[in-house]
Every structure is written in C-alpha cells, then in structure tokens.
Amino acid sequence: MDHEEKQADPQEVKAQARAGRAALAAMLAPVRARTRLAMGLQIVGAAATVVPYIAIAELAKVLLAPGPTDEGDVRRAVLIAVFGLSVRALFGGVALALTHFADVALQASLRRRIVERLGRAPLGWFTANSSATVRKAAQNDVHDLHYLVAHSAVETTAAVTVPVVGLGYLFWLDWRLALLALATLPLYAGAYAYMMKDFGPQMGRLNAGIAAINKAIVEFVTGIGVVKTFGRAGEAHAGYREAATRFGEHDSGWVRPMLKLEAFSSMAVSPPVVLLVNLAGGVWFVHAGWVSPVDVLTASMVALVIPSVLVTLGFGAQARREATAAAQRIAAVLETPVLPEAVRPRAPEGHEVVLEDVSFRYDGSTDVLKGVSLRLTPGTVTALVGPSGSGKSTLASLVTRFHDVTGGRITIGGADVREIASERLYRHIGFVLQDVQRLRTSVRDNIRLARPDASEEEVREAARAAQIDRRIEALPRGYDSVVGEEAVLSGGEAQRVSIARALLADAPVLVLDEATAFADPESEAAIQDAIARLVRGRTVLVIAHRLPTIVEADQIAVLSEGRIVARGRHPELLAEDGLYARMWASHERAVV
Ligand SMILES: Nc1ncnc2c1ncn2[C@@H]1O[C@H](COP(=O)(O)OP(=O)(O)OP(=O)(O)O)[C@@H](O)[C@H]1O
Predict the structure, then answer these.
(1) Ligand 1 centre from 237 Cα, in Å?
(2) Which of 178, 212, 482, 543 could form a disulfide with 513 if both were Cys (CB 3.0 to 4.6 A apart)?
(3) Atom of ligand 1 nearest to the CA of 396
C-alpha cells in the first residue's frame, strides 16, 4: 500500500483558491447589490440590538436613584428599549427577507443557465459521469450557495456590528470597562493561533490517513470472495490494521493535544468565565470608584455577546469555503462546450447520408477516425463491423451529431449536419443505441418521446411492432408504469422500448447499435423481428453484432483502427480474404 502522503503544490493550491474566489464572485455578482443593501439594513438592526441593554442600564439607574422615582424617566427607558427591539426586528427581518429573495432568484437563474447550456451541449457529452456532475451541480452545489447568500452575509454583519457598537458604548462609558470586556480574548486568540500554526499540513496527513483506511477497507471488501476462497483473511486484515495503527499514532500525536488546547481556548470565551472575569474586575473598579455597579452590569452583558461573533465568523468561513468549491463546479458545468447552431439553417433534401473524408479526435491529439468516406443510400442497410476499439460507435455518434467532426463533413440529403437545425435533424434521424436512454417516466411517455402528440393507438401499434406490447400490458399499471420503478426492464426489453420509440418517431434515417448479449433465444428472436420491421424502407447505419444482419446487409463497411479497410457485400468481402474473412472465420469457430 502506498503510504506516501502527497502534498499539493502550494502555488497550485493558491491558484486554485484564486480561481474559486473569482468563480464565486462572478456567480454572486447579480445579487451583490441586494446583499449589500441587506447588510446595510442589518447594521442598523444590529446596532439597535444594543439599545435595550443601554435602556435597561438607564432604567436601573433611575430605579436605584435615591428619592422618589420619576415615572416619566421610567416610561422613556421602557419606550427606548421597545423601540430598539422593534428596529432590530424590522431591519433584521427585512434584511433576511431580501437575501432570501435574492437567493431564490439566484438559484433559479443558475438552474436555468445550467439547463440552457446543457440544451446546447453535444449529446456525446452526456455520459454517466457527466450526468452525475450535472445532478450534483444543479441540486447540491446550487443549494450550497444558499447559506452564503441568504444567511452568512446578514448574520456576519450582525455578529460584527453588535460587539463593535457595544464596545463603542463601553468605551464611552469607561475605557477600563471596555478593556475588561475584551480581557479573555487574547487567551483565545493565542491558543487558536498556536493550533492553526501547523493546521494545513497536519490536516493533509490526517485526511491521507483516513483515505488509507478507506482504501484498505475497499480492497478488503471488493476482494472478499477471493480472500475467503484462498483463506487469506489474515493478510487482508493486516493492510487495514497497519493503516489504522498509523492513523491512531497520528491521532494521538497531534489531534489529542489540539483537543485539549481547543477545550482551554473555548473555556476562555465561555459565558461563566467571561461573567466571572467581568464581575470580579467590575467589583474592583467599583471599589476604586471608577464606575457604578449598574455600569458593571451593562458591561458584563455586552462582554457576553462578544464571543458569539467568533462562532458566527467560523460558520461564515466554512460556508464560504463550501460555496467556493460549489461555485467552481457550477462554473465548470456552465462552461460545457456547446454545439454551434447554424445561423442560416438548411433543410435536408432526401435521405441520403454521405461521409466525406471524415476525421475525429476526442482529445485533440489522437485521430480515432481517419479519412472515412461512406455513402448510405436510402432504403439500404449499411453494416459497420470491425474489431473492438476500431471506431464503430464513434462513427455512428458523428452521424447523429453527438459530436462534431474534426475533419471532413457529413451530409444528410445534401445538407451538412452542422447546418441543419438540431430540432429538424432529430426529426430526420432516429437512433437506437445499446446504452438505452430510459427516462424515469411512464412507459407510454418513453415510447412517444419524439412525438408527444401520438395517439394511444399509435403508441400501442409501435409497441406491438417492437414485440414489447405484451410485456408492457403485464406490468402493474400497463403503459402508465414508471420505468425504473414499477417497470424494471431487462436490457433486451429496454432496447425493444427504444425500437418502439424509433418506430413511432418514424425518422427516415436510422442509426442502430445492435445489442450484443441478451441471452434468451426468445428475446433474441423478438428483437431481430422488431429490428427487421424498423429498418424497412429507411437509410440505415447499423453497428452489427448479429450474423443475419451482417449477411443480409446491402453494404458492409469494415473498420480497422479508424479507417475503412474494406467495403462490399458479405460474399464479396469473404472472397477478398482480408480482415473481414479472418473475423468471420474466428466468429464461426467461436459459434461452433
Ligand atoms: N468518449 C470518449 N473519449 C475519449 N476516447 C474515446 C471515447 N469513446 C471512445 N474513445 C476511443 O475511441 C476509440 C474508438 O472507440 P469506439 O467506441 O468508437 O470503438 P468501437 O469500434 O465502437 O468499439 P466496441 O466494439 O468495443 O464498442 C477507442 O480507442 C476508444 O478508446
């Protein structure tokens, strides 16, 4: 196991942090004005928080003063306290409402921008991985901004304003009282600075330790079958034990002393200690004749408020860190490459598909397809065959414009696919792929995805032709069953739903990836039958895995390492005695 603890390059970490802050600032720009207004209101509201304390002190002075109590003074003190509380509630409430409205607007606009951007992303961009990223960005990451926008700005403002105004009042009252209110803070700050001294690298080591333990657990669990079979449980445990021991050593070496220090520093700002210091010091001040007992009481109340600022600032910093990371992920999704839409779109005339000298690379350096030219005549089936990795799926995905070619061009009915408006393109071209697109909605809606206005009879007709109608009718709620919940479909069944969808869409050009392995012969025959119906009369490009499709195809294109190395019908290619004949021979051997 690798125990090397990788330390990130500090320059890189700094650049990352800068990029994160910039992404966050750009994302929050639309709500900045409202956030600032809310902070302004909150300063007034928070300053008013101190007013009742002062009013109570004044009231105490009035009540404790020798001689008869002046009712007018009492009433005035009470009114001032009520006024302070009201201003605080009103301004604080409006400030929070403003930031919450800003947050709702920001979330909605970010989600809209994500959807709008993804609507223009090439379909080839949508993989399982990218779907997870998008889901995380649209749900969790956008939500992670909530605390920062709706709460943090306003709460931090309040947390800073209250002690500052309170201290200002204490300085006005007596500077010694103000300093007394701050007396325990240097202890806290000193302990905190000491804890933070080595924090970054130590946390890195701690996280590396946890990662090592997790890795050992995953290794053990995923290999448990092999481990048990060969009676090696002891050895497998050793990896975990070693990782756990290292973690434990580090834990006792750094974390435990830190925890003691933490407890000490928290105690320095805890209410009992603050109260004790202020009252004890206050008693001394009173004896010295510097202040009155009522002033000591007021100062103690203000001193109690001060530590709360530390907690709120801590939360604020944490929220900012999380929001920064979230903003970076959202920014990445918002920068998803998009397929350019033609300014003056063209309409295809006819259904012939022509690939002219097409090249393609995923990564900007290696050509996966090199100078591929191919003509797909309307009403014929072209079968793509070739070894694994030769570029068959890539070629099919270019015809459906899941990606744009990096060289050459592809035309449908004489128009470059890049010049056809995408909505029109997908009325013209249908696809049934292995990685079957199943939506979490009713089977009916899955079938009529391309034609939402299709009648019930048309949906059923398509399902019948795709040989899936009886299976759907046997589902708990028939066509209303939700795919993935009530309708758990096997690979073969899902592909037949896709075929029904393509039949209903009735696009004249069809790209088809035949399923490789759906075991039972009944399902196999049903799919074969459904496909035969589907391809009839269309321009078809099929990634062929089944013998009948290949043998009966009007044209077979043999791909090898991104080039078409042979083209023709089955008997012609066999006679050429090249790659195709070799593939055929090994296939026959495998079948026999
Ligand atoms: N999304 C992708 N990003 C980067 N490279 C890819 C991507 N998809 C495929 N490739 C690479 O392109 C080459 C052609 O892959 P492709 O899937 O088109 O071949 P294939 O003939 O369809 O293979 P198979 O029969 O195994 O499905 C391979 O080297 C593959 O690694």
Answers:
(1) 39
(2) 543
(3) 18
**514 CA from centroid of ligand 1 (Å):** 16
- Whole-angstrom Cα distance, residue 45 to residue 52? 12
DSSP code string of 220-287: HHHTHHHHHHTT-HHHHHHHHHHHHHHHHHHIIIIIHHHHHHHHHHHHHTSHHHHHHHHHHHHHHHHH
Q: What is the DSSP letter of 351?
A: S
- State the pLDDT at residue 523: 66
Please identify every stretch of the chain with a pLDDT value under 50, giving residue numbers as ranges. 1-6, 519, 592
CA of 391 to the centre of ligand 1 (A): 6
- Per the structure block, which two tokens stand in for 78? 């009470």
Tokens of 578: 């090249």
If you measure from the C-alpha of residue 336 to the centroid of ligand 1, how many angstroms do you get, rounded to a whole number?
A: 21
Rg (CA), the chain: 36
Classify burial at 84, counting beta carbons within 10 Å of its beta carbon; exposed 0-12, middle 13-18, buried 19 or more.
Answer: buried
The pLDDT assigned to 5 comes to 44
DSSP letter at 505? H
pLDDT of the residue at 228? 65
**3-class DSSP state of 439:** coil
Distance 494 CA to ligand 1 centre (A): 23
Ligand 1 centroid to Cα of residue 368, in Å, is: 8
**Do 353-591 and 16-174+308-334 fall under one CATH topology?**
no
Separation of CA 389 from chain center: 30
Q: Write out pLDDT tens, residues 7-62.
A: 556 777 778 778 888 888 888 899 999 999 999 999 999 999 888 888 888 888 88
Domains of the chain by residue range = 16-174+308-334, 199-261, 353-591
* Domain covering 16-174+308-334 in this structure, CATH number: 1.20.1560.10
Count of alpha carbons within 13 angstroms of residue 473, beta-carbon side: 9
What is the CATH number that goes with domain 353-591? Answer: 3.40.50.300
Indicate the DSSP class of residue 479. Answer: G
For atom 2 of ligand 1, the residue with the nearest CA is 362
Query: Which residue among 372, 393, 541 is best mutated to probe the pocket of ligand 1, counting the most ligand atoms within 8 A of its Cβ?
Result: 393
Q: Residues near ligand 1 with C-beta < 6 Å?
A: 362, 368, 386, 388-394
- Ligand 1 centroid to Cα of residue 161, in Å, is 60
- Closest-CA residue, ligand 1 atom 6, reads 362
Q: Atom of ligand 1 at shortest distance to CA of 395? A: 18
Q: Cβ(562)–Cβ(370) under 8 Å?
A: yes
Is the complex ipTM higher than 0.90?
yes
Residue 389 C-alpha to ligand 1 middle, in angstroms? 5
For atom 3 of ligand 1, the residue with the nearest CA is 362
The minimum-distance atom of ligand 1 relative to the CA of 391 is: 18
Q: What integer pLDDT is reported at residue 4 of this predicted model?
A: 43
- State residue 460's pLDDT score: 93
Alpha helix positions (H), 65-139: 71-119, 128-135
Mutate to test the pocket of ligand 1, among 370, 392, 406 (most ligand atoms within 8 A of CB): 392
